[in-house]
Design goal:
transmembrane helix; membrane; 3D domain-containing protein; 3D_YorM; 2 domains; 5 helices; 23% strand; alpha/beta; Barwin-like endoglucanases
Amino acid sequence: MINIIKTTKEIILRGKNPLIGSIITGFIAGVILFEVLAPQIINAEFKNPTPVAVSIKLVKNGKLTVCKLNKEAYETIKKVKMIITAYSSAPDQTDDTPFTTASGKHVVDGIIANNLLPFGTKIRIPQLFGDKIFIVEDRMHTRKGKYHADIWMSEYSQAKNFGAKLTDIEVIES
């Protein structure tokens, strides 16, 4: 790597100010080090190689959505490993409209925030909540990434006691 930097510096410096060459060489070395040392994005492994967004569009637009009373009738489209946390409508956890979701709906039990899935996507978290259906209607701060979901709870103490759990979510179709 040192030889690459020296060679790059020699090419850049041909008849130019050495300070400019040093700055450019430092920048290139920084980019290379960043690519090597920076954490990489975790990709979920799907059984079906179809991108999640394409599958979700099929759920929302590909079929007439009818309320099904038999919960076994829901088909799992994808399983994705996510960090699950909880939040409440406390002013310190939300913006200036604590009871309104990012999609414009009023918060109710079963609302979940996520940055990967489109609004209206139905999911289950079987290891934590069995067959309970959650609907993505809210968003999280971008620093949380796409593989983090936040369940709305009515009480701050409930949300605080829930903690953080790593588990699989199931994206379902209705």
